[in-house]
Specification:
heterodimer; A: 187 residues; mainly beta; 5-stranded antiparallel beta sheet; B: 292 residues; alpha+beta; BirA Bifunctional Protein, domain 2; 9-stranded mixed beta sheet; 3-stranded antiparallel beta sheet; 36% helix; globular
Chain lengths: 187, 292
Amino acid sequence: MYSVSDIRKGLKVEIDNQPYVVIDFQFVKPGKGQAFTRTKLKNLITGNNLDRTFKIVESLAPCDVTDVNMQFMYADAEGYNFMNLETYDQVSLPAEAVGDAKNWLIDEMQVNVLFYKGRAINIDLPNFVELEITYCEPGIKGNTATGTNKPATLSTGAIVGVPLFVEQGEWIKVDTRTGEYVERVKR
Amino acid sequence: MSPDGIRARAKVLGAMRRWFSDHGYLEVPTAVLVPSPALEEHLHAIPAGGGFLRTSPEFALKRAMACGLGRIYEIGPCFRDREHGAWHRREFTMCEWYRAGGEPEDVMDEVESLVRAAAAALGVREPGPWRRTTVATLFAEHAGLDLTLTTARDLSGEDESWDDAMMRRFVTDVEPALHGAVFVADWPASQAALARVRDDRAWPVATRFEAYIDGVELANAFHELLDAGELRARFEAANRARVDAGEAPHPVDERLIGAVGRMPRTTGIALGVDRLVAALMSWDGIGAGRVE
């Protein structure tokens, strides 16, 4: 068991038979009350947030989550398929479990697949990925104005806002946590 | 710790002392090392030199009120063990002021004026307008509960006391939703500490309010309890709760019990100075203004 003083960002715990990760926490102590740690947790299966407050004397159950580095192979009607490059084991995740990460997944990308009690439930992408622009309006050369964006469709089908000077066929770096353009990259 | 943080803190301390002087308050430095710390179950005093480091200057300042002073204040260090976080330290700076003949609404006016003076000294926008509301109103708004009718199980679903369940729900659902400057009054009588209890509300409440800025608890005010017998009973109840919780009982402050009958009708308030600076500067904790 974890004690409340073990709570850190990224700690994975089990609550009501569901796996959660701590995304934020704070020590709080009302002037006339006892000490608590207020936490913001994310359900690793549903992605839903949960606010939970623990007394300092309480304990939290660790959760049986492991992450395994795997390579994305392909998506089909069944879901998204990944392979462990060491053991060649393959797993398939349903689209709901992959969620918005599908916007950034390209063939052969390596990701961390999360397993809860042996079942693949979620994936962790790298913070930054490089993707090709398959369609956007022609660029305006020399226009480096910031703050003005145009939509660009990426090879995964995702649409992101890019600066006006960026051209179709170029590769860009995207922050997978915010879904925002970072910079152009040479390929 | 940062140079700008330390300068900001100095500006606020200067503005506070000017405000107190302008409003007729006398600065009264009291002992930091005391024989009897607060008895509240959830306060943990640090033993030192055969006594304790004070958890607040409350008892000493009330004895000063009983000796005939009408408006007094103190700004100085206080110590509470087992408290550490972005907004908590074991050692922190408290400001308390006491005033004869005032009503809680007058103290709210004073907090607004003092905070305005501190914001002006910092050159930042003053928080406000202040909202004046009650604990029960906020539970209705943010938890959808009629606090006066709830049980512990309604509040938290855990097997715990009503006060623990109420506080757990308060810090989970209510406190994070307190945007802007808010006075929260009418706390349950069971959380009165040393405030008078009034029975002219739908349920028994303490004549006590808290001041919040953007979800940070800044100050706690009482209409002070003046009945020596009731004060002793509350001290004894607090010590029983300490023992039940596995904590050592604390010596009862007989000097305060002896003096309380000579106090005029008094309002008192304790305000966290580190937090005031941090809230006005929009810091995400109190560390930047402190040298630790």
